[in-house]
Write a sequence for this structure.
């Protein structure tokens, strides 16, 4: 059996293992899938009438909620990676000659799957609340591709944070900035309505061009500038996260 085939087989085993852990942990499912829906219902139904965004608020908020669903699904990944390191599971896998890359890749893939499920739930709830996108089939494909790219990049960064964490508490806290960033972006209100300082931060942080690209795609009018910035940020997250995760894993495993 070739090295590539072995790595793929090991990755499949790790993916199956991590999926089982997710399904057996109701808290993970709540944080990843149900809590973003609760946030969406709160913002659209409770606060939405107070915001003047020019469109139905559910149309404006849905792209931001897609990104928030990704960020809320990351905390459990960091905790799971740290738990594996702390309990010596990684050393046991090494003794079983399991591919080192498969251990990390399994966490990234299961996080991506979990976030895609959460995004599908967000879109379903949005349609139930009157979401009316003008996106074509190609635009929807772009939405899916960008969400996958964002989740992939953020997952590698989260795996790196979990590997670098010194305790279970610090592993969970490490992802808090990623969870908070959508609140300081154009997810819920336009950046140009914010106060000085906050507005500049919102305009230049990673999630705003990603959200604006999703918003443009769903409206059937994507912006090339936002799209290029969004893809660049996603790739940067992936490259930094991957390099950091691999380097930390080699030191600790």
């Amino acid at each position: 059996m070739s090295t590539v085939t072995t790595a793929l087989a090991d990755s499949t085993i790790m993916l199956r293992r991590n999926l089982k852990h997710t399904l057996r942990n109701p808290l993970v499912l709540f944080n990843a899938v149900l809590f973003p829906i609760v946030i969406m219902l709160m913002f659209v139904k409770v606060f939405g009438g107070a915001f003047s965004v020019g469109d139905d608020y559910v149309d404006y908020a849905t792209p931001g909620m897609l990104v928030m669903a990704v960020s809320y699904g990351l905390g459990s990944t960091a905790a799971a990676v740290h738990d594996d390191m702390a309990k010596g599971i990684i050393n046991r896998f090494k003794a079983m000659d399991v591919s080192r890359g498969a251990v990390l890749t399994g966490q990234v893939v299961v996080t991506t799957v979990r976030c895609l499920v959460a995004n599908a739930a967000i879109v379903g709830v949005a349609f139930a609340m009157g979401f009316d996108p003008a996106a074509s089939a190609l635009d929807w494909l772009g939405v899916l591709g960008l969400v996958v790219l964002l989740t992939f990049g953020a997952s590698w960064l989260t795996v790196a944070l979990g590997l670098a964490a010194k305790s279970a508490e610090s592993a969970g806290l490490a992802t808090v900035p990623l969870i908070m960033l959508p609140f300081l972006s154009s997810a819920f209100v336009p950046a140009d309505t914010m106060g000085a300082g906050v507005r500049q931060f919102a305009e230049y942080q990673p999630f705003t061009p990603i959200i604006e690209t999703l918003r443009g795609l769903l409206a059937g009018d994507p912006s090339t500038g936002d799209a290029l910035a969004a893809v660049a940020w996603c790739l940067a997250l992936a490259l930094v996260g991957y390099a950091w995760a691999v380097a930390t894993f080699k030191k600790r495993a």
User: Anything to note?
Assistant: The first helix runs from residue 3 to 23. The mean pLDDT is 83. The chain is about 75% helix and 0% strand.
